[in-house]
Amino acid sequence: MLAVAIGTVGIPFATVVQVILSHLLPGSVEATWSPTQDQIIWQFRLPRALLAVIVGAALAISGTVLQAIAAALRRVNMGAFAERQFNMLSGGEKQHVLVARALAQQPRFLVLDEPTNHLDIHYQLEILELVKSLGITTLITLHDLNLAAAYCARLYMLGTGRIVAAGVPEEVLTPARLREVFLVDAVTGRHPVTGTLQLSFVATPHQHTEEQ
Questions:
Q1: Which helix (H) or strand (E) holds 8?
Q2: Pairwise CA distance, residues 197 & 204, whole Å
Q3: 210: Cβ–Cβ under 8 A, 6 or more apart, which residues?
Q4: How many helices, marked H, and strands, marked E, lie in the chain?
Q5: Separation CA 179–CA 199 (nearest Å)
Q6: Structural domains of the chain in order of their starting residue, each with its CATH number
Q7: pTM, two decimal places
Q8: pLDDT tens digits, residue range 86-101?
Q9: Are 30 and 38 in contact (CB under 8 A)?
């Protein structure tokens, strides 16, 4: 299942993700990773994308670990880039490697914070198609409502420090709710090819007056 959290800019997604996880995985143990600067530098100074998948400088690099990493890179179609320097990869390629980093740990649940941020439309669609194809329950935070509607099975709308609505896209992305949370008027329709929910937006008169 692919679950997506959406909300306005400024929503503390990291905190809200923990709240949503408590709904999706009741009774689960809270686990967070706050990388130190040394760990971040260590990852980006590695000569190969293959090793950039490893989380934490203290992880022992055994043959079994390298095999798992190589398999994860192949799974995200990055096997041919294993010898590339991580900082020489494009934004989309780096996102593929970061997904591989998670897969190398054989997770039962993935959490991805804005994986399409700063990517062109080709890589946005490619990353979401990839994540959807993994067959792993995944929670993603997104600001693009049409991408959320196209790819998520369950959607959580965030606003004013709480979950405003939860459900399938058609239940959550209603014109009334979009006006309330995002301050825009919306017209709902269907994508002419995929048939998924598609939104068109117009600024509300109140918002237009303030911007002038």
A1: none
A2: 21
A3: none
A4: 10, 7
A5: 12
A6: 2-26+36-211 (3.40.50.300)
A7: 0.71
A8: 778 888 888 888 888 8
A9: no
Say how far apart CA 61 and CA 78 lie, in whole Å: 20
The one-letter amino acid code at 135 reads G
**Token pair belonging to 16:** 């809200």
Q: Burial level of 165, CB count in 10 A (0-12/13-18/19+)?
A: middle
Find out whether 109 and 25 touch, Cβ atoms under 8 Å: yes
- The Cα-based distances of 128 to 74, 95, 165 in angstroms read 17, 11, 22
Q: How many residues does the chain have?
A: 212
pLDDT tens column, 166-176: 999 999 999 99
Two tokens at 2?
């692919």
Query: In sequence order, which ranges of 46-174 are alpha helices (DSSP H)?
Result: 49-52, 63-75, 91-103, 121-133, 145-151, 169-172
| Dihedral, 128, 132, 136, 139 alpha carbons, nearest 10 | 50
Q: Are 184 and 208 in contact (CB under 8 A)?
A: no
